[in-house]
Known about the structure:
The chain has helices spanning about 35-45, 60-70, 90-105, 130-140, 155-160, 180-190, 230-250, 255-265, 275-285, 295-305, and strands at about 5, 10-15, 15-20, 50, 80-85, 110-115, 145-150, 170, 195, 270-275. It is α/β, with parallel strands linked by helices. An 8-stranded parallel barrel has the order 3-4-5-6-7-8-9-10, surrounded by 6 helices. Strand 8, helix 6 (about 180-190) and strand 9 form a beta-alpha-beta unit. Helix 1 (about 35-45) packs across helix 2 (about 60-70) and helix 7 (about 230-250) runs antiparallel to helix 10 (about 295-305). The longest helix has 20 residues, at about 230-250.
Amino acid sequence: METRELGTSGIRITPIITGTWQAGKAMWVGIEDAETIKAIRAAFEAGITTVDTAEVYGQGHSEQIVAEALSDVRDQVVYATKVFSNHLKYQQVIDACEGSLKRLKTDYIDLYQIHWPAGTYGSEVVPIEETMSALNDLKQQGKIRAIGVSNFSRTQLEEAAQYGRIDSLQPPYSLFWRYVEKETVPYCIENKISILAYSAMAQGLLTGKFGPNHQFAEGDHRAKNKLFQGENYVRAQQALEKLRPIADRYQTSLGNLALAWLIAQPQTCAIAGVRNAQQAVENAKAADIRLSERDLAEIDAIGRLVTDHLDDNPVMWNW
């Protein structure tokens, strides 16, 4: 699989990235460790050498699963993990990084990201200068190779960039969720900041596997996703029907069509979660799809049938 530079870091990442929120099990149902390990390994063997995790996914369980799957090929993979919003004081960042290093069974993290800005989810408001100071020190010590942020607005991103080099932004971004394009994408392009899109298939909605009357099992957080609710969901189903003929032309799945559209956007890579090895192998195929300019434009227009009707709140869930 081709690789792309992460920001200006010199680190090479794959356009499709294995996402491991579900590996933590918390807020998901029907997840088995053995299957997840096989899935992460299958993704690697299919050419996806970049994996994204976080300390908060299952309180470290996801990081441990990543290590079980990939420790023996550590020198061939790029690890991206995140520090949560309740650990953004200087010493908390240092301690959180040490915890992640141990769980990942590695002596360095390729990309270390601030998961949510300080003050979110009831966390203490910590000056970004203090958090960045810790991240810069970790980078100088060789414990992390690059710094990224997740769920930051353009204003927050600009502020963080005053205190150190930011090589990536991780926002929710898909054909059905495009808030990041309004203000933040132009800034990222101008400053060579890679965009690592999470919920790249709109948490499975863009695969087309959920029917008009789908109900999630109790405990599955996707029931709170705005795209799965009311008129948004109806419009999404209509859009998917319009996308099917395009997917058929490329002899691919709806999910891979959505991934191919996303990684064709400027400086954008797509994080795709996996439950099993079959999904991992399927995701990897998206990197080989080359959409024509005409089809990219048509897909864009179909996506706007959904996104033009969303409200101005960039958070995807009604928590």
